[in-house]
Design brief:
The protein is an all-alpha fold. It is built from eight helices and no strands. The chain is about 80% helix and about 0% strand.
């Protein structure tokens, strides 16, 4: 197997894992009320000393769960917004099909992903306070950008290496 083939295989593996993560992250938006109920039952439980002693986490989860319950019951169409959020995640994952097939020609998709990961940070840090989101939760939101950035950065570097090897006439095989 040549070094180019090996690098392309690694890019495909990392991109597949990234795509799965994006889809799974999006799918959670479909069942938000149920997921919050589970989290509320676990974290909002006053017998859970570890969580209740955590600075405001149990209160925040309880607050969000109750707000979502009321909203979904009185205004069920609001959930349609999170349905579209889930759909957008799936569409974004599909966009990475291009680099999966030809990472060099579709490097721009990886770069698009890197830009969007960076943009998660200002969105969370600017809009979070405007929407009343606690700081610790904004950090969790920021972590999605950071966690997504790392594999995409690695993929981009491997694609650049593939381009360089292809332009210099890479050796036929790597020992």
């Amino acid at each position: 197997m040549t070094e180019i083939q090996r690098l392309k295989q690694r890019v495909k593996i990392v991109l597949c894992l990234f795509m799965i993560g994006v889809v799974l992250s999006g799918l959670t938006a479909f069942s938000l009320e149920w997921e919050l109920y589970i989290l509320f039952r676990w974290i909002g439980n006053p017998n859970n000393q570890f969580i209740t002693s955590a600075s405001g986490l149990a209160d925040w989860i309880t607050h969000v769960y109750r707000a979502l319950q009321v909203t979904y019951r009185q205004y069920p169409f609001i959930a349609y917004g999170t349905d579209w959020l889930a759909f957008a995640h799936i569409v974004i994952a599909i966009a990475f099909w291009g680099p999966l097939k030809d990472p060099v020609r579709n490097r721009w998709v990886i770069e698009f992903g890197l830009i969007t990961c960076v943009l998660v940070l200002p969105l969370a840090l600017i809009m979070g306070p405007l929407r009343g989101i606690p700081f610790f939760w904004r950090l969790i939101d920021c972590s999605f950008g950071v966690v997504g950035f790392i594999p995409l950065w690695w993929c981009r570097n491997m694609v650049l290496r593939i381009e360089k090897l292809a332009s210099t006439g890479a050796p036929a095989a790597v020992s």
